[in-house]
């Protein structure tokens, strides 16, 4: 029974003592060890005093310092956790720290980061001494390199309370005798000159120690007092103050509170971004929402200059706290994601991922917009299951949002999400929404970026789905009224050429590209010529050597083809254009101009909007001024998918998408610069935006332009092979023949473009449309009849004229008969 009362108290100490830490040898009565808390394994520091190896006097000093450490609480003082006394040892557990001497020796910080780290540390020790001298009327009496410790967060904590005393407690001996010889080098000069004792103040001794600490921070351990006169490595901002601190006259040494006031003024040593940031975070609970928003919106620009330990262990936890329990709003996302990159993957999953999942469930558009913009910064840390089960169901709502900005950013986000999406989410859900956006969205930039995004994610699509979708989608884009959309379609066809069968190239791709060689925009024409030459080159090589066909079609049915292989082919230029660039809406860079009046007007059905006739209100992430959209959620009813499948436009008889969607021109219409100005430098990733993009502006996003109304997007009826087109009031009969020829050309290309209905989104089941063949045969027959009729009329006209073949410049006296 008596053994119970004689048990070792160390067994009840909830901390395990680990390996010793160097840095305090012969300069402290304590030895420092690493430690861990039992159960949680949290890291701590253990200060250990060996009773048997030290004198009774040292034991009394150690016990006295422990008592003072227990009762002192301040952000810049060493934080006490627990203690235990046995017959052999005295244990003291504190927060995990290392001696400043060791930290400076091992510190790899350079340049501005090192300067900010030292300034922040000296500020903290000065603040601790102000607490001792002014608030507690105490003197530390042991300020030096070996009484300061550094936490994981890079904060300097003042310890070494062995010689702490109250001011005026012993007037006969105001300076204590230090029993450790190596500490005597830090004694102020008045200790040896009794005449100066009368001029001592309550802070003069500690200010001398602060001067020694500043010298050691920039020069290393102090070896002798005369070395204090060397100020070469001390910053110029600090030289005047340093000279006052190490003055031989105790009365001339400043008060620590005055030091802080002086150095916090503009241009002072303590006036820098890191100290401003840390002080704001300490007082963030009393800051209003406007101050917090301004602070977080500018924080990201400073983080690169801050020491990494401070960012990870001090600033990031404060940001997470502000996110969970404060009203910081979406402004906290940018610095939080930037600092999250510094975490280990396990820590990221524990700290950041729950925040991301919570944010995606938010209904706030500003928050969703910022998340989509910053998706590339954290997507690599998300597990596939998290993306498919928790992130994607929230992201997909953005496709149906009435705000054009959210729709466009949602489209762009799929580039980052695609590698992690499962079959159904990528090959079914995403493609459903892409089909609707490319064909129905009234914003040209959104239609353009939908095509670009589809080209980017082509490698991740299922081979059979990819084979059905790509050609139809990209050919649709080549008929868009928006010039950048047509160019995007051409580039996408070239960039994904390895996924097309050669039969598709001959029967579907080339017939769709040929009309673009006469496109009003030179950028589109150049891309079309270049792409056509590349495809013809492939066909010619296979014609010369049929054995090459198998190699050229090797990636068509491959689940994970390598995009780098395509880059090495003739289409490498297009791969670069599509996989690295999104279209930047031209309202960011172009100015509104008035369209010049044309001398000759084309029939309305033939006009294609070029860069000189496009409205500046096409899709723009930054040019819109309202969160409201002209469409409603009911416009996107999932039950109407059969009306919006991509394939429908491909089977439209006798029209081009550009003709059907062209807005009416007028003398007062606004115009923009040409496509060359739009596409020269505007196809870059900067359109993704940054979190510093004027938060106020995000609430003032423009509603979609009224000039792109639904009436102008009405498509011709495919069931009526003789569908007539509404022409303008002035019809030039000289263009009538060319008009019908162009319509016929598009009808011919449409014959080979199969649509992809809802059923084609289902896994690998082909549903043949029995009526398509009969409709196409009927249209082909009528085209042949019209062609023969035109030939007969031309021959009759020539024979009636009796002049043989018509010569260049011959004037037609009678108008040709209508077709």
From TrEMBL:
One Pfam family matching this protein: PK_Tyr_Ser-Thr
> Which PROSITE patterns does the UniProt entry name for this protein?
PROTEIN_KINASE_DOM (PS50011)
Q: Output the Gene3D superfamilies linked to this UniProt entry.
A: Leucine-rich Repeat Variant (1.25.10.10), Phosphorylase Kinase, domain 1 (3.30.200.20), Transferase(Phosphotransferase) domain 1 (1.10.510.10)
UniProt region (Disordered), positions on chain: 593-639, 653-672, 737-819
Question: In this protein, which residues make up the domain named Protein kinase?
Answer: 18-270
Recorded GO MF terms: ATP binding; protein kinase activity
Q: Where is the composition biased (Basic and acidic residues)?
A: 628-639, 775-798
Q: Which domain of life is it from?
A: Eukaryota
Record field: compositional bias (Low complexity): 610-626, 653-669
**SUPFAM superfamilies associated with the record:** ARM repeat (SSF48371), Protein kinase-like (PK-like) (SSF56112)
Q: Could you tell me where the Acidic residues compositional bias lies?
A: 757-769
Q: What does this protein do?
A: Regulates COPI-mediated retrograde protein traffic at the interface between the Golgi apparatus and the endoplasmic reticulum. Involved in the maintenance of the Golgi apparatus morphology.
Under PANTHER family, the record lists: N-TERMINAL KINASE-LIKE PROTEIN, SCY1-RELATED S/T PROTEIN KINASE-LIKE
What's this protein's family per the entry?
Belongs to the protein kinase superfamily.
* Record protein name field: N-terminal kinase-like protein
Q: What organism is recorded for this protein?
A: Vanessa tameamea (Kamehameha butterfly)
């Amino acid at each position: 029974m008596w053994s119970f009362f004689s048990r070792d108290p160390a067994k009840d100490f909830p901390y395990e003592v680990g390996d010793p830490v160097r840095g305090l040898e012969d300069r402290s009565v304590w030895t420092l060890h690493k430690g861990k808390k039992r159960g949680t394994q949290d890291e701590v520091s253990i200060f250990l005093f060996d009773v048997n190896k030290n004198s009774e006097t040292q034991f009394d000093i150690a016990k006295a310092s422990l008592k003072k450490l227990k009762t002192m609480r301040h952000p810049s003082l060493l934080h006490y956790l627990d203690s235990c006394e046995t017959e052999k040892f005295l244990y003291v557990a504190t927060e995990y720290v290392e001696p400043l001497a060791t930290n400076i020796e091992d510190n790899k910080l350079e340049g501005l980061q090192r300067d900010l780290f030292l300034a922040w540390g000296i500020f903290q020790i000065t603040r601790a001494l102000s607490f001792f001298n002014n608030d507690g009327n105490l003197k530390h009496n042991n300020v030096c390199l070996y009484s300061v410790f550094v936490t994981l967060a890079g904060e300097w904590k003042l310890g070494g309370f062995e010689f702490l005393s109250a001011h005026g407690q012993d007037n006969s001996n105001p300076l204590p005798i230090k029993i450790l010889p190596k500490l005597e080098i830090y004694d102020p000069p008045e200790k040896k000159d009794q005449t100066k004792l009368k001029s001592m103040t309550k802070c003069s001794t500690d200010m001398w120690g602060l001067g020694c600490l500043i010298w050691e921070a920039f020069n290393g351990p102090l070896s002798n007092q005369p070395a204090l006169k060397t100020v070469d490595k001390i910053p110029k901002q600090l030289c005047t103050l340093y000279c006052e601190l190490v003055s031989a006259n105790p009365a001339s040494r400043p008060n620590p509170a005055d030091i802080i006031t002086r150095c916090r003024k503009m241009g002072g040593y303590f006036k820098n971004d890191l100290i401003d940031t840390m002080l704001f975070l300490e007082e963030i609970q009393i800051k209003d929402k406007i101050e917090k928003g301004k602070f977080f919106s500018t924080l990201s620009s400073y983080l690169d200059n801050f020491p990494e330990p401070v960012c990870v262990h001090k600033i990031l936890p404060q940001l997470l706290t502000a996110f969970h329990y404060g009203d910081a709003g979406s402004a906290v996302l940018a610095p939080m994601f930037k600092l999250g990159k510094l975490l280990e993957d396990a820590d990221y999953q524990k700290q950041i991922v729950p925040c991301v999942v919570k944010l995606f469930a938010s209904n706030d558009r500003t928050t969703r917009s910022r998340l989509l913009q910053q998706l590339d910064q954290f997507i690599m840390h998300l597990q596939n299951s998290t993306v498919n089960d928790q992130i994607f169901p929230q992201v997909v709502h953005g496709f149906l949002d009435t705000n054009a900005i959210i729709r466009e950013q949602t489209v762009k986000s799929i580039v980052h999400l695609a590698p992690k999406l499962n079959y159904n989410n990528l090959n079914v859900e995403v493609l459903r929404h892409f089909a609707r956006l490319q064909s129905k969205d009234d914003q040209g930039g959104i239609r353009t970026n939908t095509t670009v995004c589809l080209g980017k994610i082509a490698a991740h699509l299922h081979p059979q789905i990819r084979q059905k979708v790509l050609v139809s989608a990209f050919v649709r884009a080549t008929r868009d009224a928006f010039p950048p959309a047509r160019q995007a379609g051409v580039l996408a066809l070239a960039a994904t050429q390895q996924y097309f069968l050669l039969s598709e190239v001959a029967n579907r791709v080339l017939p769709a590209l040929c009309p673009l060689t006469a496109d009003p925009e030179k950028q589109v024409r150049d891309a079309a010529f270049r792409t056509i030459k590349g495809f013809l080159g492939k066909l010619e090589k296979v014609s010369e050597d049929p054995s090459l066909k198998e190699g050229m079609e090797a990636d068509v049915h491959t689940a994970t083809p390598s995009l780098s292989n395509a880059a090495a082919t003739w289409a490498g230029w297009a791969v670069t254009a599509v996989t690295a660039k999104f279209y930047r809406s031209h309202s960011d860079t172009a100015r509104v101009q008035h369209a010049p009046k044309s001398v000759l007007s084309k029939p309305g059905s033939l006009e294609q909007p070029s860069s000189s006739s496009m409205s500046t209100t096409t899709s723009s992430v930054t040019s819109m001024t309202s969160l409201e959209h002209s469409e409603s959620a009911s416009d996107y009813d999932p039950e109407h998918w059969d009306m919006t499948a991509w394939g429908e436009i491909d089977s439209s008889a006798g029209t081009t998408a550009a003709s059907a969607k062209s807005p009416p021109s007028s003398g007062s219409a606004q115009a923009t610069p040409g496509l060359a100005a739009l596409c020269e430098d505007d196809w870059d990733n900067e359109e993704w935006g940054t979190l510093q993009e004027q938060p106020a502006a995000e609430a003032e996003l423009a509603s979609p332009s009224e000039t792109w109304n639904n009436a102008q997007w009405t498509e011709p009826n495919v069931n009526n092979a003789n569908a007539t087109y509404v022409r303008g009031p002035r019809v030039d009969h000289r263009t009538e023949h060319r008009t019908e020829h162009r319509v016929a050309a598009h009808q011919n290309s449409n014959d080979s473009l199969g649509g992809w209905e809802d059923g084609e989104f289902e896994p690998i089941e082909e549903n043949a449309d029995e009526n398509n063949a009969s409709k196409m045969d009927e249209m082909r027959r009528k085209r042949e009849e019209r062609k023969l009729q035109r030939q007969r009329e031309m021959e009759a006209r020539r024979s009636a004229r009796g002049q043989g073949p018509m010569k260049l410049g011959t004037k037609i006296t009678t108008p040709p008969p209508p077709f």
